[in-house]
Amino acid sequence: MELYAMKGGVPLVGEVEIGGAKNAALAILAAAIMTDETVTVENVPDVRDTNVLMAAMESVGAMVVKTDRHTVKINGSKIDNLVIDDEHIKKIRASYYLLGALLGKYKHAEVPLPGGCNLGTRAIDQHIKGFRALGADVRVEHGFVVAEATKLKGGHIFMDKVSVGATINVMMAAVMAEGRTTIENAAKEPHVVDLANFLNCMGANIKGAGTDVIRINGVPKLHKAEYAIIPDQIEAGTFMMAAAITKGDITVKNVIPKHLECISAKLLEIGCEVEESDDAVRVVATKRLNNTQVKTLPYPGFPTDMQPQITVILGLSEGISIVTESIFDNRFKYVDELIKMGADIKVEGNTAIITGVPRYSGANVSAPDLRAGAALVLAGLAAESLTVVDDIKYIERGYEDFPEKLKNLGAQIAKVRDQKELKRIEFGVS
Ligand code: EPZ
User: Fold this and answer.
1) 262 and 224 together in one domain
2) Fewer CB within 10 Å of terminal CB in the chain, N or C?
3) Are residues 289 and 151 both part of a single domain?
4) What residues flank ligand 1, with Cβ below 6 Å?
């Protein structure tokens, strides 16, 4: 099993280029099969989740060709199977975007119930409610969600919960439905807006994405498009936090600073310097940081996908901090791992009470999910002596070249094949 091994204590300094947003890419790649013409998508991150999704699209007959590492041409005209039964797709949450895309285009889709990071119960009732409001018959059979309709008609949907996935899925199903669809209490995340912009480039008529009411006027068909995915808000935030935790100085380039405001505001509040320019954010930390309170919320609130990273920072800050997770019910599993590194954190329900310690000590830890895995790497980069993070397959689902980018900033980190190879690596640990 592959591992990341690192020796902490080096302030990370320099510039890092941020890639395309994984969660926007997953929606956009799925939506690209909704036309029979060829779509070119640029700035697609080369990570496990996007590659698994593209393989599943190919398995039902879509043509998917990478013309370079980050550019993909997709043609959905030869799709001849509406049942996604790919072994790997069950493991990624975004498999359900093929439900909205295939249902919207062919009025029929069968997709395995989604997997993904284990963050607790992850219902899909709002997706199903939305599809039904458009006139689809939706049922769960033999582990598959089966959605079908003779025709889809615009409907009025009030989401009971703000859901990124349900907003995206219903938007895709509605673009070619007859008449007008209104989604109220819609998610406002940047990737929801990016998908709407992409669909509009393909000829859809979507208004209001980025607000909590999205209005979609159905069009008969979609056409070819060329589109570049927005930069990844969470990858950018993770590198901003890497500067904070290592008392470094990192300029995170190719970002949309507006998408990072809630992260910048928290870092400023705890004592970092944050400088924004048109498409970059520089974070500098020179001293021990302060305590604070954080509550995760839908966009524009503090993202749940940055919760483990800020907790790791607050674990080394002065005083007592409180982090409340309000999106998922099981997103503190990494705390046990952090405690192995000397953190003083108590979790009560959906709240972590963090008493800052002066330092972490290196340990062998396991990544329980994608963002928590990245957060444990950040902890390792700030820890004394050697830290080994295993189960890095989770991290590789969403971070492209993570150790390489950290290394370019001065981190002592290496990806190793197994424990045997680890023994051969010399990090200068005494
Ligand atoms: C998306 O997941 C992201 N995944 C997640 O990214 C992210 O953590 C999450 O949004 C929140 O921002 C992708 O975009 C592929 P939700 P999603 O539907 O769409 C409940 C990462 O690390 N809910 O907004 O699955 C749900 O249980 C990850 O990149 C229902 O109750 O999240 C959760 O408590 C992991 N019923 C809350 O809503 C539903 O039908 C928000 O979930 C749908 C969701």
Assistant:
1) no
2) C
3) no
4) 23, 26, 93-94, 117, 122-127, 161, 163-166, 187, 304-305, 327-328, 370-371, 398
